[in-house]
Amino acid sequence: MASTLKGIDVLRADQFTLDEIDLIMDTAARFEAAVRAGGRLLNLAGKVLATLFYEPSTRTRLSFESAMLQLGGQVLSVAEAKTSSSAAKGETLFDTGKMIESYAHIAVIRHPVVGSAKELADGAVIPVMNGGDGAGQHPTQALLDLYTIRKERGRVQGLTIALAGDLKNGRTVHSLAALLATQEVRFYFVAPEALTMPGEITADLRARGVAIEETDDLAAALAQCDLVYMTRIQKERFADPEEYERLRHAYVLDMALVQRAKPGLIIMHPLPRVDEIATEVDAYEGAAYFRQAANGVPVRMALLALLLGLE
Question: How many domains does the chain have?
Fold first, then answer.
């Protein structure tokens, strides 16, 4: 099975087979257990990860770099690549891909333009991972989200899951919906009218037999759901600042809402949060978002090792 992942690019959440998803989840669990036990891992000794971030990042960049270091590898990092790399001189991503293959064995890119990761991958012979391309995809986030759901609920099949907030621009929810479509779940898409899930995504999911309810009523959805995936209203995706201000407080999940929700509700969020989850919710047992962020390390360890064939 490992040979099906060795050397590939990770560009979309829906590119994996069920067997490949299970392999990534199992490998992540094995690495997490090894790290927790204090083991010294050298799977990727002598290997180099290049991280190219053309947009701000905390969790994605640091968890990738931590994952590589914990496997004994090394990291070359270009932060604020839009201004601190040759992109400022007009270098294309295709040429950047040709360049980095001489310096690293694997790469991850975050970029504001949809399709940017594929352009880099087209130029590079080394594996490239999409760390977020504009409002497009964020496949490694979706994989760590799936890993989190498995840990928090013990299963994925049969769950009813709400995706709430900025569904129009949210690459995390685009990727997660695509990945979970293979897992026999039911969705509630909760968003104001201006920020609903793109029609092509809902149409594709329904064509695949996925049950979807679309609503702007968060409280009603929470009464039906086992898990809610909150997202922030993304200021950087708005051309009109007044439109952002109008929508930014569309949903605020506080303890009053949690107490009215289905018992045992799990709360996830890709972070950063702004004010869409009140800090009082942090003490709630089902608030999983910081545990979710921590799960990025073992999942990305698994991807690095599997793509390099050194798991």
Answer: 2
Per-residue pLDDT tens over the stretch 184-224: 999 999 999 989 999 999 999 999 999 999 999 999 999 99
Per-residue pLDDT at 249? 80
**Cα-based distances in Å from 27 to 17, 22, 56, 185:** 15, 8, 28, 23
Both 288 and 299 in one domain: the answer is no
Query: For residue 120, what is the domain's CATH number?
Result: 3.40.50.1370
CA 89 to chain centre: 30
Annotated active-site residue in 110, 111, 118, 171? 110
Determine the structural domain holding residue 94 and report its residue range. 2-136+295-307
Helix (H) or strand (E) holding 49: strand 48-53
pLDDT tens digit sequence for 85-136: 555 557 899 999 999 999 999 999 999 999 999 999 999 999 999 999 988 8
The active-site residue out of 36, 40, 89, 279 is 89
* 59 labelled catalytic: yes
171 and 95 inside one domain: no
How far, in Å, CA of 38 to CA of 103, rounded? 30
